[in-house]
Automatic annotation (TrEMBL):
Cofactor dependency: Ni(2+); Co(2+); Mn(2+)
Record PANTHER family: ALLANTOATE DEIMINASE-RELATED
Reactions listed under catalytic activity: (S)-ureidoglycolate + H2O + 2 H(+) = glyoxylate + 2 NH4(+) + CO2
Keyword line: Endoplasmic reticulum, Hydrolase, Manganese, Metal-binding, Purine metabolism, Signal
InterPro entries: Amidase_Cbmase, Bact_exopeptidase_dim_dom, Peptidase_M20
UniProt GO MF annotations: hydrolase activity, acting on carbon-nitrogen (but not peptide) bonds, in linear amidines; metal ion binding; ureidoglycolate hydrolase activity
EC number: 3.5.1.116
Taxonomic lineage: Eukaryota, Viridiplantae, Streptophyta, Embryophyta, Tracheophyta
Protein name as it appears in the record: Ureidoglycolate hydrolase
Cited SUPFAM superfamilies: Bacterial exopeptidase dimerisation domain (SSF55031), Zn-dependent exopeptidases (SSF53187)
Subunit structure: Homodimer.
GO cellular component: endoplasmic reticulum
Top-level taxonomic group: Eukaryota
Organism: Erythroxylum novogranatense
Length: 450
C-alpha cells in the first residue's frame, strides 16, 4: 500500500475492498451538465437551525423531544415542503420527505441523517446530511432530472444517545429491533421521564406503545446513502474533497455502578474505607489499559460519564456511576476488551470491598460494510464531478450502521476543520459541503435510475 498508513491496511483487510477503485457499473457519461448548489441559502439554513439550541452560540445542545428539538423538526418539515416533498412522520418521530419517481411502485432510494445534538456540540454533525439532502433534491429538480425510483429523505430520531442512553434509536427501530421496541416500554431519562411521556409531549407515540409499527417493511429501500462530516482529520490533512466510506466501526456502550458504605471524609480512616469513587477511577484507568493492550490503533475506549454520590467534598463516595463507550472495526477484538473490562470491574469491587451493583451492556453492535452498488455509484459520481476522493472507514457510528441491515448502504464524508466534532469548534466550509451535496445528488440520481 502507498503510505504504510496502518489504517489503510486495516481498511483493506476490514472492508475487503482493494484500495484501488474497482471498475464502476455506473456509466461515466452523466446527463448533468451543471449541478448548482444554493450555497448562500444552505449556509443560512445551517445557521438558522443552530439557533434551536439549549446552549448559547456557538455551542449547540438539542436533545430529543425538547422544545428546541420540536422547533427544529418543524423547521425541517417546512423545508421539505418547500422542496416539494410529501412529508410524513412515524410513531417515534422519524420524519420522511418523499419525491415520487416515474415508477413509484419500485422501492425508493433513501438518504438522510439526524439533527439532535449532544450537549455543547457543533452545527454540522448530522445536520449536513439532512439539510444537504434537501438541497441535493433541489439541485436535481433545478437540473430538470426526474427520478425513476422515488427519492426519500429521512430525518432519524435520536442518533445521539444523550436522553435515553440509546444511540440511533430511530434507525434501530426502522431496522426492526424487537429488543429496543420492548425496552422502550420501561425506559426513563435522568429526570425519570418515560420515553413515551417524552414522545407524547413532542406530538409522537400518540396511541401506540407497540413500536413494531415503526419497523420498515422488507425491501422498503433499494439503497441508502448518508452524507456526513468526517469527524476526523484525514480528508483535510490530505486535501481530499470526498470520503467514500466502505465500513463503519462497531460501537458498544456499558453502564457500571459501584456501591460502598460512604462515610465522613475526616473521621473514617483509610484502612476501613470502601470507596466507590476510587473503584470507578480505577476502572476508568483499566478501560484505557485494556484498550491499549489490544495492540491495535483501531480499538478505542472512553469513559464519558463518571458520577459520584453524594458528590460532597467531605463525604466518601457511597455510589459511583460510569458509562463506557468502546469501539473497534474488529468486533471480536472489541468484545475481548468488554470481557476484560468486566473482569476488572469484578476484581476492583472485591479488592476494594465495594459492590458491583450494575454492569449492563446497553448495546454491542456489529460493524457494517458499505454495499458495492452504493460505493460504485458514489465513486463514479465523485469522479464525474472531478472531485478528489478516497475510500475510508468511519470510526464514529451513524444511522447508516442500522440502515445497512435493511438496505444496501453507503456514506459520503466531507472534510471538517481539524477533524473537530462533538464540540462547538466543529466546522465545515460551505465549499466542502456543496461538494458533498453535488456528489450526493449525482449518487442519488444514479441509484434511482438503476
Ligand atoms: N456520528 C456521530 O457523531 N455519532 C455519534 O453518536 C458517535 O458517538 O459516534
Ligand atoms: Mn454525533
Ligand atoms: Mn452524526
Amino acid at each position: 500500500t502507498c503510505n504504510e498508513d496502518p489504517t489503510i491496511k486495516t481498511m483493506e483487510d476490514f472492508s475487503g475492498y482493494p484500495f484501488q477503485e474497482p471498475s464502476s457499473s455506473f456509466s461515466s457519461s452523466s446527463p448533468f451538465s451543471s449541478l448548482s448548489v444554493d450555497t448562500q441559502n444552505l449556509r443560512k439554513q445551517i445557521d438558522e437551525l443552530s439557533t434551536f439550541s439549549d446552549a448559547p452560540a456557538p455551542s449547540v445542545t438539542r436533545i430529543l423531544y425538547t422544545d428546541k428539538d420540536v422547533l427544529a423538526r418543524r423547521y425541517i418539515k417546512n423545508l421539505m415542503g418547500l422542496a416539494g416533498l410529501s412529508v410524513r412522520e412515524d410513531a417515534v418521530g422519524n420524519i420522511f420527505g418523499r419525491w415520487d419517481g416515474n415508477e413509484p411502485e419500485l422501492s425508493a432510494v433513501a438518504t438522510g441523517s439526524h439533527i439532535d445534538a449532544i450537549p455543547y456540540s457543533g452545527k454540522y454533525d448530522g445536520v449536513v446530511g439532512v439539510l444537504g439532502a434537501i438541497e441535493a433534491i433541489n439541485v436535481l429538480k433545478r437540473s430538470g432530472f426526474k427520478p425513476k425510483r422515488s427519492l426519500e429523505i429521512i430525518l432519524f430520531t435520536s442518533e445521539e444517545p444523550t436522553r435515553f442512553g440509546i444511540s440511533c434509536l430511530g434507525s434501530r427501530l426502522l431496522a426492526g429491533s424487537e429488543a429496543l421496541a420492548e425496552a422502550l416500554k420501561t425506559t426513563v431519562d435522568a429526570q425519570n421521564i418515560s420515553f413515551f411521556e417524552a414522545a407524547k409531549s413532542a406530538g409522537y407515540a400518540k396511541d401506540h406503545d407497540d413500536l413494531s409499527i415503526v419497523f420498515l417493511k422488507e425491501g422498503s429501500y433499494s439503497a441508502f446513502v448518508e452524507l456526513h462530516i468526517e469527524q476526523g482529520p484525514i480528508l483535510e490533512e490530505e486535501g481530499i474533497s470526498i470520503g467514500i466510506v466502505t465500513a463503519i466501526a462497531a460501537p458498544a456502550s456499558i453502564k457500571v455502578d459501584f456501591e460502598g458504605d460512604g462515610g465522613h471524609a475526616g473521621a473514617v480512616l483509610m484502612p476501613s474505607r470502601n470507596d466507590a469513587g476510587l473503584a470507578a477511577a480505577e476502572l476508568a484507568l483499566a478501560v484505557e489499559k485494556h484498550v491499549l493492550d489490544s495492540g491495535s490503533i483501531d480499538t478505542v475506549g472512553t469513559v464519558g460519564i463518571l458520577e459520584l454520590h453524594p458528590g460532597a467534598i467531605n463525604s466518601i463516595p457511597s455510589k459511583s456511576h460510569l458509562e463506557i463507550d468502546t469501539r473497534d472495526i474488529d468486533q471480536e477484538r472489541r468484545n475481548d476488551v468488554i470481557e476484560k473490562i468486566f473482569q476488572s470491574a469484578e476484581m476492583i469491587a472485591s479488592k476494594r470491598g465495594v459492590r458491583l451493583s450494575e454492569f449492563r451492556i446497553i448495546n454491542q453492535d456489529p460493524p457494517a460494510l458499505s454495499h458495492k452498488l452504493v460505493i460504485d455509484a458514489m465513486q463514479s459520481a465523485a469522479k464525474e464531478l472531478n472531485l478528489t476522493h478516497k475510500s475510508m472507514i468511519s470510526r464514529a457510528y451513524h444511522d447508516s450502521l442500522f440502515m445497512a441491515r435493511v438496505s444496501p448502504m453507503g456514506m459520503l464524508f466531507i472534510p471538517c476543520y481539524k477533524g473537530y466534532s462533538h464540540k462547538p469548534e466543529e466546522y465545515a466550509s460551505i465549499k466542502d459541503i456543496a461538494n458533498g451535496v453535488k456528489v450526493l445528488a449525482l449518487t442519488l440520481a444514479k441509484l434511482s435510475s438503476f
